[in-house]
Write a sequence for this structure.
């Protein structure tokens, strides 16, 4: 059986189960009411895409910086990295958003909720990225660094030609997973009234009282973003494998 | 090469691994270090290869002392070649790319010139048709031979080999030792750490027994391996030789 066929069968069985579950619920479907608000959904979707992209890039950079701090030989630098990672990973994103926007941002006079939202999201995801990068770097055998030094490469050359290519291959699956999480976590920005996709669904629901018809498109919309991401990640993993 | 080591001390944390090691080889082409695990052979080799700085002591090849700062040490490393027990090659590159890397990025050669340089050794050691493969597709013996080749293509003054066959099965061990033997015959200078005593007898101009952080005995291979009177050395060889 080909992989494509197997995937299709599993999805079909799953869809059939869901359809059966829904058919058992005595629910008066009101798709027409929700359809009227399609522009709201589309706009929200666009905002989510934009926020996610910005946070993706920022969190990758923050994660790299934090990973360097974590690996630093300077006690103070390592402490900054470690406190950041533990604090952010140990507290809920919800709390970070609320404190970030209503306390910190107000204190420094930053009132653009979109900018604050992206920053908090990036800092949140960056902490997880930092651990992913640190783990990837640690997984490279010490002999690789020794071989690079033995050849006479400078530290920067060693990193660029030997360490980084291997680290990227090692962390790719985890980073892709983190990206997928980030896209879904962006839904939490609705609590500081950022008009993204989830808030749009919540608002449509409050206008139409058609809950399932508001939230099912939401799920579909996020799948539309996360599935291609997973597919690209698997493609890259296959392309960059050491074995051929 | 004329190696002169004076009171070499190396510590890792609180452990002293080299305890005032001294050795004067005279003019030899090949030096083989033997001895028990943890005795300091690899630590010594790493210092000789310019990878680690000792706590104190003086090392000089042909009268030239080894540099004591990292930047100069890097310059020294570019003039010598080092091969480790395993994981020498960079797995994300093909064998050819591994060979070209030091030529292009350290010596600044163009790709054309670099490819021309590696063609002859690849043919000589019958690895030309493996060059396009990644290390994962090569056998252990092939990987080690490519690693040795990578150390050679920069035309180093001398080679340092740290147990190059310890991770290989007997057949692959033989093919790697054959290559090293050929290098010895064609005049390459090297310092080799090995447990292969038969091979040590064949290629060593001088054997040094390193134990407990010191050179316990040194001399021509037959004298050290077969006829040494020092009890520590005698006991070691009696236990490991068939």
């Amino acid at each position: 059986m080909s992989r494509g066929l197997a995937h299709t069968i599993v999805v079909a069985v799953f869809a059939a189960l869901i359809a059966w579950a829904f058919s058992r619920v005595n629910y008066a479907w009101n798709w027409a009411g929700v359809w009227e608000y399609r522009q709201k959904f589309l706009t929200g979707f666009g905002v989510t895409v934009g926020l996610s992209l910005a946070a993706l890039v920022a969190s990758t950079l923050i994660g790299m910086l934090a990973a360097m701090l974590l690996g630093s030989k300077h006690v103070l630098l390592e402490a900054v990295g470690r406190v950041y990672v533990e604090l952010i990973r140990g507290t809920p994103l919800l709390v970070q958003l609320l404190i970030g926007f209503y306390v910190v941002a107000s204190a420094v006079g930053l009132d653009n909720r979109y900018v604050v939202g992206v920053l908090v999201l990036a800092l949140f995801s960056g902490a997880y990225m930092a651990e992913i990068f640190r783990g990837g770097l640690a997984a490279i055998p010490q002999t690789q660094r020794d071989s690079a030094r033995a050849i006479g490469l400078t530290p920067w050359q060693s990193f660029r030609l030997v360490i980084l290519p291997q680290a990227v291959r090692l962390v790719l699956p985890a980073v892709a997973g983190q990206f997928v999480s980030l896209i879904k976590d962006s839904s939490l920005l609705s609590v500081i009234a950022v008009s993204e996709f989830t808030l749009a669904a919540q608002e449509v629901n409050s206008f139409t009282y058609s809950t399932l018809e508001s939230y099912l498109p939401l799920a579909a919309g996020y799948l539309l973003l996360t599935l291609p991401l997973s597919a690209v990640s698997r493609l890259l993993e296959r392309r960059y494998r050491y074995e051929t | 090469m004329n190696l002169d080591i004076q009171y070499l001390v190396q510590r890792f944390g609180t452990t002293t691994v080299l305890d005032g090691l001294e050795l004067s080889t005279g003019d030899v082409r090949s030096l083989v270090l033997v001895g028990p695990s943890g005795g300091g052979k690899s630590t010594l080799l790493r210092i000789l290869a310019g990878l680690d700085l000792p706590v104190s002591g003086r090392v000089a090849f042909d009268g030239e002392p080894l540099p004591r700062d990292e930047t100069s040490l890097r310059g020294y490393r570019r003039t010598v070649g080092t091969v480790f027990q395993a994981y020498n090659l960079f797995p994300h590159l093909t064998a050819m790319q591994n060979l070209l890397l030091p030529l292009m990025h350290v010596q600044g050669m163009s790709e054309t010139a670099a490819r021309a340089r590696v063609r002859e050794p690849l043919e000589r050691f019958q690895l030309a048709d493996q060059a396009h493969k990644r290390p994962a597709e090569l056998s252990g013996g092939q990987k080690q031979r490519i690693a040795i080749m990578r150390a050679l293509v920069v035309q180093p003054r001398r080679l340092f080999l740290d147990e190059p066959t310890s991770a290989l099965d007997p057949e692959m061990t033989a093919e790697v030792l054959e290559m090293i033997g050929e290098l010895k015959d064609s005049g390459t200078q090297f310092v080799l750490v090995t447990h292969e005593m038969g091979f040590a007898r064949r290629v060593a101009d001088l054997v040094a027994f390193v134990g407990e952080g010191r050179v316990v005995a040194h001399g021509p291979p037959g004298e050290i391996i077969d006829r040494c009177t020092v009890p520590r050395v005698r006991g070691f060889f009696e236990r490991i030789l068939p």
